[in-house]
Q: What sequence folds into this?
């Protein structure tokens, strides 16, 4: 029977390992075991120093091997703004054998509510205060994650569409505590140049098809620039949050093949969007993917920053929970959201419309914001509605994969007859058990 090991690698896909891969897989196990052992030690123990040196070496060799495609990537959680995949989430994912990803996107609004609500503060000053908070908080979350897992692989997700993108990326990379930067939302023209200053941080561009990789490969070759170390493509049809432009009739395998035609065979390509079961992971690895990312599954755990009660009421109620793909995001993109709270959302949107425009913090650049500019009357203030999700507001914006309805009755979310939000290790154990589930992730197979 096919198995997924503790980091969700499918063992039989790699059953014909060459000698070097055997060594790397053993190193992988040693690294995972070593991280567990470290949690039982204190710096004054004799073994501590020796073990930390070993772990430093193992992590760096394994990271290199992943980016050289010598071994697959462990699963990673999706980066989730605002304040959803924070340091505690990334730390827990790393401690469960995965790649932990904090969000570096708009971490400031929840820390700056007093400023935002203060009508005395002028626009420029308000924007400045919130942007400073974005940086400080993104860095703080990296530090929290690192403290929880000193030798795990740590990533940060930042959206390029933000006006303070470069400042946030530099602040995060300057910590020297992260391993991978994931960048999505937009065409990150300045990224190869910025990352030339941070050779120790790998960077992955999030794409929906081959056009962006083509562009990134080209600009990465320019003098003073660096090429992307890898790509992450989202299956727009399924992914939670904003959707990229993608021909939904193409299967993930076809998208991968097109990306490979552009970038060649050397760099890893990761995939996410609708990965819900062990069977999805197997399917992905079999089609040549180097690693998977899970957003919604991580959101529905105790370590995401979304309050359990909100998850239970809006995400896990078969009577209420419903997703829809809508074109109302102020970014102009379509997004998949959970509309279980539609009434509350609409009421708040109407109530605060005028008030909130006067408190704008230019989170996605007010000149391009379809809410601020009134370009789309159905649009909303994304900073206001999305930051409220982690604060537990019933009218908040609730992103979700449109496979949510399919998974909400999974046994993972029930304990002793009650609705239950699992831990990260419980999620991993469940995914391991579902390799025989039957994949619906692959659009080719959907409904088959
Ligand atoms: C609540 C939520 C917030 C998200 N925020 C971001 C984000 O800030 N940046 C980003 O690149 N992707 C974001 N995503 C997408 C995830 O990182 C991930 O790519 C996606 O959720 C994978 O699809 P899945 O949810 O079907 O697993 C978000 C997804 C959700 C559910």
A:
């Amino acid at each position: 029977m096919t198995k997924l090991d503790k980091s969700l690698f499918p063992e039989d896909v790699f059953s014909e390992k060459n000698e070097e891969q055997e060594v790397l897989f053993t190193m992988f196990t040693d690294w995972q075991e070593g991280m567990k052992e470290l949690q039982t030690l204190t710096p004054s123990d004799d073994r501590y120093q020796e073990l930390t040196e070993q772990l430093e070496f193992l992590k760096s060799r394994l990271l290199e091997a992943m980016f050289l495609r010598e071994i697959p990537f462990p699963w990673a959680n999706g980066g989730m703004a605002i304040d959803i995949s924070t340091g505690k989430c990334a730390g827990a994912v790393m401690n469960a054998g995965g790649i932990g990803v904090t969000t570096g996107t708009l971490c400031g609004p929840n820390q700056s509510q007093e400023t935002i609500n203060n009508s005395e503060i002028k626009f420029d000053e308000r924007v400045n205060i919130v942007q400073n908070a974005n940086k400080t908080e993104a860095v703080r979350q990296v530090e929290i994650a690192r403290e929880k897992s000193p030798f795990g692989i740590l990533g940060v997700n930042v959206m390029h569409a933000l006006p303070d993108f470069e400042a946030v990326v530099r602040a995060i990379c300057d910590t020297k505590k992260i391993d991978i930067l994931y960048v999505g939302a937009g065409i990150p023209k300045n990224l190869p140049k910025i990352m030339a200053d941070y050779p120790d941080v790998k960077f992955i561009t999030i794409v929906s098809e081959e056009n962006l990789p083509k562009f990134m490969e080209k600009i990465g070759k320019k003098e003073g620039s660096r090429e992307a170390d890898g790509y992450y493509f989202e299956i727009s049809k399924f992914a939670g949050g904003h959707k990229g432009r993608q021909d939904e009739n193409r299967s993930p395998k076809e998208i991968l093949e097109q990306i490979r035609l552009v970038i060649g065979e050397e760099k890893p390509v990761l995939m996410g969007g609708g990965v819900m079961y062990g069977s999805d992971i197997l399917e992905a690895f079999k089609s040549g993917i180097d690693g998977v990312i899970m957003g919604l599954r991580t959101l529905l755990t105790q370590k995401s920053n979304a309050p359990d009660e909100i998850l239970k009421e809006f995400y896990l109620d078969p009577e209420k929970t419903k997703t829809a793909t809508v074109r109302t995001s102020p970014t102009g993109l379509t997004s998949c959201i959970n509309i279980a709270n539609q009434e509350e959302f609409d009421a708040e949107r109407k109530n605060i419309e005028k008030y909130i425009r006067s408190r704008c913090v230019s989170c996605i650049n007010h000149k391009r914001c379809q809410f601020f500019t009134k370009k789309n009357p159905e649009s909303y203030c994304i900073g206001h509605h999305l930051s409220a999700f982690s604060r537990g507001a019933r009218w908040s914006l609730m992103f979700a994969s449109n496979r949510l309805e399919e998974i909400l009755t999974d046994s993972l979310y029930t304990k002793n007859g009650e609705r239950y939000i699992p831990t990260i290790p419980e999620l991993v154990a469940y995914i391991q058990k579902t390799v025989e589930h039957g994949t619906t992730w692959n659009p080719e197979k959907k409904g088959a």
About this structure: The longest helix spans residues 123-148. The domain at 72-302+422-433 is CATH 3.20.20.70 (TIM Barrel). The pocket of flavin mononucleotide is lined by residues 78-81, 84, 103, 105, 157, 159, 184, 206, 234, 238-241, 272-275, 293-296, 299, 399-401 (CB under 6 Å). The mean pLDDT is 91.
